[in-house]
Specification:
The complex is a heterodimer. Chain A is mainly beta. Chain A has one domain: TonB-dependent receptor, beta-barrel domain (Maltoporin, Chain A). Helix content of chain A is about 5%, strand content about 55%. Chain A has 7 helices and 36 strands. The longest helix of chain A has 6 residues. By secondary structure, chain B is of the alpha/beta class. An 8-stranded mixed β-sheet of chain B has the order 4-5-3-6-7-8-9-11, sandwiched between helices. In chain B, strands 2-10 form a two-stranded antiparallel ribbon. The chains are: A mainly beta, B alpha/beta. At the A-B interface, α2, α3, β1, β16 and β17 of A face α1, β1, α2, α4 and β8 of B. β1 of chain A pairs parallel with β1 of chain B.
Amino acid sequence: MKGIGAGLFLVLSAWSTGAQPPAPPSARDLSKLSLEELMNVEVVYGASRYAQPVSEAPSSVTIITAADIKQYGYRTLADILRSVRGFYITYDRNYAYVGVRGFGRPGDYNTRVLVLVDGHRINDNVYDSVGVENSFVIDVDLIERVEVVRGPNFSIYGTSAFFPVIVNIISQRGTRATPEVAAEASSFGTYAGRAGYGRRFASGLDIVASGSLLDSRGQDLFFKEFDTPATNNGVAVHADDEYVYRLFGSATYKDLSVEFAHSEREKGIPTASYGTVFNDRRTRTWDGRSFLDFKLQHAVGADLTVFGRAYYDRATYRGDYAIDYPPVTLNRDTSDGEWWGLEALALYTGLARNKLVFGGEFEDNTKRQQRNYDLNPPASYLDIGNSGSRWAVLVQDEVRLLGKLILNIGVRHDWSAQVGGKDSPRVAVIYNPTTSTSVRLLFGRAFRPANQYELFYATDVPRQKPNPGLKPETIQSYDLVVDQALGKGLRLTTSAFLYRIENLISYTTDPLDGSQQFQNAGDIRSKGFEVEVGGAIAPRITGRASYSFQDTRSVAGDLPLTNSPRHMVKLNLATPIWGGRLQAGLEGQYTGPRLTLAGTPTGGFSVVNLTVLAPRLANRLEISASVYNLFDKRYADPGSEEHLENVIPQDGRSFRVKLVWRL
Amino acid sequence: MRRPGATRTDQAAACGHGPALRLAVGLVLVGAAGLAATGPHPAAPEYAVKAAFVYNFAKFVEWPKRAPAALAPELRICVLGADPFAGVLDEIVAGKTIGERTMAVARVERVSETAGCAVVYVSASEGPRLRSVLAAFRGRPVLTVGDTDGFAEAGGIIGLFLEDNRVRFEINVEAADEAHLTISSRLLSLGRLVNGQGR
């Protein structure tokens, strides 16, 4: 156990007691392995907010490790998620949006998928959004592990865990992070550097610190929709640029840890979104995100472990938009969110056959400000802010009915002034008939209150009206997961899901006056299945291959949703080459056709990425070289409401070289 | 962003199902090969793996000939504090012998009960008082193993930790010397060596 630094999720397993019945099964096999073999056995976790074998977790979990991040040359959280079964990313050259299991609403700022860093919620308090490109709050180089947890999680994680898929990121501790400097150069004039420090002292004090910069000129992009002499023949010059800096620090000592993160990103918008002037470099966004998080984990005797957390968060956004009213005027759109909160959780294992979790949370949103105004001549269109708190209590029990049958029941009660009190249950039945088979049936219900943006955002041009009467949207989800070990080192995971979302909060046009507004716009039904084979695929080759099918439709009219591929295939293979001095990582991703807002399908596409890593080229030097989109496949993502472009072309072949020098 | 200036509404029109599914090149072949192949390293629960390590450590350590642990008829592994192994450790050592000695697992609540123990696994439940526990074993021919953060640096002999989702271990050579334990070179070559007295 690497201490609380490793996060809430790992630690608790250390405290499980003899109340647990025997016995995780592969003991006999394990005792026959040599030390060298044992060192290669992968350890698995789960996600009930305490560690458990994946076979007992009320979910289906995919884990991406620090080694995978290096091996496949991942640059952003978006790159990581792209490789995960069931996920797809839509990039509009301003922000990247996560789609999962067929659900990726154009104009949805990742509001329905919870992202955590060391148990700390990253979604903000105005849009519920998370940036997964370079506006993500920590560097991917600082990630120890990403756990993608599929299954109803709301009852235990609450706010933002609306969609039954969460992304839980564990940051590195000083035992992994080393003093190092890194430099990288990529296509499109992109340069990045990072200096990091990590150490665990003999006293037990564990410290990590990191700072990084990224500067990208970006491309001069052509958009055929603007191919007229008046708009520079469709070429947006130097309007795809990007600047990022990030700071991170963590300190862990015994039961206590403190973590700090801050990031700022500036990005040019080359697409002339929101009806802005094409090829005007002033149109761009700035996003800032920071948090300070204190954690306490303490064992009170052998049967009780308590966790506490106190946090302060800030999320800022500013967008400048050159709009031709006329004359061309710079319009500024901003948001500023500030909040703090407390969490307490207790795990009690003193009752035979039971693992009980109790918890409570309180969050106070001290600032949720949205503004929109013209700079010159000054004119204000929106200046609205409010505060508000919410609290929740939760209880969960994992009951081992028989040795092979586990029942996991949880319920959460949320309260806020906006929606009053609401209960969200989860029921999971987990049956492990043999040592190599695990069957899990999961049901959950969750809700998402409309966020501040959906409720109150309003502007005159274009005309958008607020809708303070928005009801929460709700989801009911059913998941069936079957994990099967296929002989040594290979796992087969199959899962099927059925979701029903009611009162989906959607951006719609009012037929009466043509204005736009968020409304509770009907119900959505989503069903699908996933198959994945992973592990030691062949001697010296590890990896995973998956296929996922999803069918997501509006209940009224039975029409498929936009930006929802029916088919996806993912392939990741890694192998040592040149006698183990190098490692090669090959990645292939197929995304099926997606419907655009105009009702035409984008073409399906396959992208192949290749990374070669030299972990120790010299004693202290690590070098990696990556080619993204190796075969230069031309493909495009669907545009959103704010784009004139029906589809937005994506990058062709590009390169990156990265050096890490360990001090 | 965040400034919806739309000119179009979301028309959920009927999806032409588009071209048939095209698999990534070679995926089918690789997948099929994968199904037939058998790799060497399964995934397993953390504490099952750690239990297997503890068993292996006992095989690669020699106790001084006159130590009580060496003279006892069975090699006893004691779990001090809350047992995280949930029976797996018992299952692993059941029927195993080291030399001519059988192996056994015992659970103990306090240091004073560890008299006949060759290996003491210090549970994470002892974390708050780790230093005093380890100080009590100092110089005694007992192999202390644990997975508390900084276990070996605090004076424990072998500390387990996780890296890349795999179990690794570190050895406090000084502490092993003081305990008059001989650790095999194989173990030393696989583990990470640390120093520290926990003082």
